[in-house]
UniProtKB/TrEMBL annotation:
Keywords: Hydrolase, Metal-binding
Residues the record marks as active site: D92, E153 (proton acceptor)
The keyword Metal-binding belongs to this UniProt entry's keyword annotation: yes
Listed PANTHER family: ACETYLORNITHINE DEACETYLASE, BLL0789 PROTEIN
Keyword Hydrolase appears in the UniProt entry: yes
Protein name per Swiss-Prot or TrEMBL: M20/M25/M40 family metallo-hydrolase
Molecular-function GO term, any one: metal ion binding
Top-rank taxon: Bacteria
Domain Peptidase M20 dimerisation: 189-281
UniProt xrefs under InterPro entries: Bact_exopeptidase_dim_dom, Pept_M20_glutamate_carboxypep, Peptidase_M20, Peptidase_M20_dimer, Peptidase_M20A
CDD domains assigned: M20_CPDG2
Length: 393
């Protein structure tokens, strides 16, 4: 088995985790909130400059509709053929500009802290840096390598979704270096689908003391809706619901004429998603004198652990064993752009980024000890002919 995985090629790349950490810190030092396309363009400019003089083709898709730009990097040297191996990452974060001034990058032992470092500056850096090294060394991979970076993932990829689906449809397989959760080496082979809904009740205001019965309370209606939706967590085996925000009313002595909620739904499979989205959009008010508006729908389809995904994971597990790296698998309730690729019928392996924790939290961090192993695994997946044969045949 070792000979089949081309051990000379595996030894050709020695990754220095500390040196890679410096590059990750450089990226984290460039704040890129989703609502700042100008700052997203700045980091994409930096990425583009790192490929100066290398035999790659770079396409920039400009920012639009308030969303950050996108970048596609293609490496297609003579001698490689077939559909590309696609790596997908995002450079936007949930952190507002100015966060670094309050919470600068710091290191405590193996933990490297910084806003956006875990989700997912570290993984996106590793994807681009791995491709840069392969191109710089003149390695001819079994098939072309393509890296895609977007700047609107944290807000649902509204602009980049079409590009993601197109690129995934052209790919042999898709690797997503989103954060790794759980034990070191864990990858993601399934993710729930995600839908969100806004429910707004329109009632009738009235004086709460003088003529309360003339009013129709929108808050009362929304209370009914909350209890009913939350109860679906008990009745639905493959979906979960969370009422995340509640708003409404004006004053305590006024019957509220308007109230609303935001609902998050996670779902395991597409058939359930279609059924429950239709049910949510068809909801009606309990009080016939209340008008209930429901908006929303499915943002990301489920990423299902298909036979093709299992084959890709099995190939990665065999390769990781050859490299002496731990690897395991998990499913996640959180979504990624890998959901779009998987729904497009492509084999996807997600969670290939660094280990750590605290996504979207003030203790967000990566484990420095996981940087070099993940870089080595990505490099091997992109350059090993035997791995790619196992993954796609």
């Amino acid at each position: 088995m070792a000979e089949e995985f081309e051990p000379a090629l595996m030894r050709a790349q020695a990754f220095d985790g500390e040196k890679l950490a410096e590059g990750i810190v450089d990226w984290v030092g460039m704040e890129t909130p989703s609502d700042r396309p100008d700052l997203i363009d700045r980091i994409l400019d930096r990425v583009e400059r790192t490929f100066d003089g290398l035999p790659v083709e770079i396409q920039r898709l400009p920012a639009r509709d308030g969303c950050g730009g996108q970048m596609v990097i293609d490496y297609r040297p003579a001698g490689c053929d077939g559909d590309a191996a696609l790596l997908m990452g995002h450079v936007d974060t949930v952190w507002s500009a100015g966060t670094l001034a309050q919470r600068p990058v710091r290191r405590e032992g193996d933990r490297l802290y910084g806003p956006g470092i875990f989700d997912m500056k570290a993984g996106s850096y590793l994807a681009t840096e791995t491709l840069r090294r392969i191109a710089r060394q003149g390695i001819v991979p079994p098939r072309p390598v393509r890296v895609f970076l977007n700047g609107d993932e944290e807000i649902g990829s509204p602009v980049s979704r079409g590009t993601i689906e197109r690129l995934a449809g052209e790919a042999a397989f898709v690797l997503v270096p989103e954060p790794s959760y759980g034990a070191p080496g864990t990858v993601v082979t399934a993710r729930k689908g995600w839908a969100r809904f806004d429910l707004t009740a329109h009632g009738l205001s009235a004086h709460a003391g003088g003529n309360r019965d003339d009013g129709r309370s929108a808050i009362r209606e929304i209370a009914h809706q909350i209890l009913d939706i939350e109860a679906m967590n008990d009745s639905e085996r493959t979906a979960t619901f969370n009422v995340g925000t509640v708003h409404g009313g004006t004053r305590a002595n006024v019957v509220p004429d308007k109230a609303g909620i935001e609902v998050d739904m996670r779902v395991d499979d597409m058939a359930t998603a279609e059924r429950l989205v239709a049910a949510m959009l068809a909801r009606r008010a309990v009080d016939r004198d209340i008008r209930l508006e429901v908006d929303g729908g499915l943002n990301r389809p489920p990423f299902v652990r298909s036979p093709a995904v299992v084959r890709l994971y099995s190939a990665a597990r065999a390769l990781a064993a050859h490299l002496g790296l731990p690897i395991g698998e998990t499913s996640r309730g959180g979504v990624s752009d890998g959901n779009f690729a998987a729904a497009n019928g492509r084999p996807v392996l997600d969670g290939l980024g660094c280990g750590g924790g605290g996504a979207h939290a003030i203790d967000e961090h990566i484990l420095v000890s996981t940087i070099a192993p993940r870089a080595a695994l990505l490099h091997a997946m992109l350059t090993s002919r035997h791995f790619q044969s196992l993954a796609t045949d």
